[in-house]
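Table S7 (text form). Paired inputs.
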Amino acid sequence: MSGIWKDRPFSLVLSGGGALGIAHLGVLHDLECKDLEPAEIIGTSMGGIIGACLAIGMKETQIHERLKSFASVTKWIKFSLSGNSIVDSARIEKIFDAIFGERMMADVSIPLKIIATDLETGDKRVFAADDKVLIKDAVLATMAIPGIFEEKVMGEHVYGDGFLCENLGLRESSLQEIVAVDVVGRNSFINTLPDNFFKTFNVIEMLERSIRLLMHNQTKNILEQVDKNILLLEPDTSAFKTSHFHKVEEIRALGLGLL
């Protein structure tokens, strides 16, 4: 790969997937080792968070250290007793404020696009350099899973997680060459259905499997529509759940050696 991509600018597209998105770090590590830097970054949900960190000039080791703080969910999750979500975003906002400060979408080293969904219309919203939007606000929008994380109100619009419209933002690439990392791709499923003793566990696992299938099929359809040179990397995340933020090292390792 290094011989091809060193000669051509490429977009780095990072998917959503909750804690599974930590696997993006392994790919970033390998890109740095090969002295490869994307010409633009496109991210959804967790891919948007990691992509934004990379875009402002953070190295993989720095992003890695930041994500370790998510290993203890009590440090960033505060349950909400009102509104439309389970989690109050106050603690998460403080973390993103410490990382991005008052940087706007244009205040980056590498051009950045972050995908969110307008929860009132269902339309895709792509935050980019032309928008007078703070990076931290765009990140809060792209990760706002409806019902789980607090929706992000920006002006007259209400935004939620980008996975609802485009979990792998291939259509937003302005370049012909794309390196895309999909943590909920074909390697994110096991061949058997849940068979736990307790029905509750089966229901939860079936719900997560269903959401992964929806995102995977969404991406398959988009791949058929995009006429570009795509290097698609799909880490084997099948043994992990989207809530496994405490398994940073194990999930990061899944992205190593894919290039």
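Next pair, protein 2 of 2.
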Amino acid sequence: MSAVLSHDYARARGGRFLLRIEDIDPGRTREEFVAGIEEDLRWLGLAWDGPVMRQSARLPLYAQALERLKAPGLVYPCFCTRADIQRSASAPHGPEGPLYPGMCRGLADPDLSRPHAWRLDVARAMALAGPLTWHDEHAGTIAARPDLLGDVVLARKDAPVSYHLAVTVDDAAQGVTDVIRGRDLFLSTHVHRLLQALLDLPAPRYHHHALMIGADGERLAKRHCALSLADLRERGEDPAAIVAAFRRGAAPLGFRLSDA
């Protein structure tokens, strides 16, 4: 759905529709998945502009951005596991579950030879950046509240960069003016706006759309055995009908759009 809406938005305004492969997770990335994405887009009749950007080829640029945040002490190494956070009685709860309670924030002499992530010190970063806003097509002007997600990870133990930092750097590098994505990423935009300010990067306009859900009300996901576009191709579904439904603001094939 995001691809169709992004493609049409760009075409209607004489802009470019860009394809970016977010392959920073070595444990989950497969070349057949990348090929599948391109095949899906072609099946839907969507053509992207210019070369495909692959995040795995841009790791030095993300490292440079992280170093810029390290210099003023805006990030800190974190040695905690997810289990540590879940067990912590002091972990506050945010809109998406437990927030990191800051056990590693302010360690005097961290041993960087141990596996660690790098977390953003959100309180310190917000104090440095000052009040920020961002704009969503549907919700209007939003006061940035990155603290809603706590001290997010910017570089993981098992990957050199997180989604938050990579997309912020890439949006600026590609000259992205409008980001169209699902409402499940609405809260992430608060963090991205803060990173843009800290790294002196421009802020795009945002358009967060409703999510497709199944007839049972569950969000479409592999863990729920949701149908993929490849499955729909094999079933002989009409791609033009699927795209037409999205363009009407509807969900095709018995799916629904979430109001949340």
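The mean pLDDT is 91.
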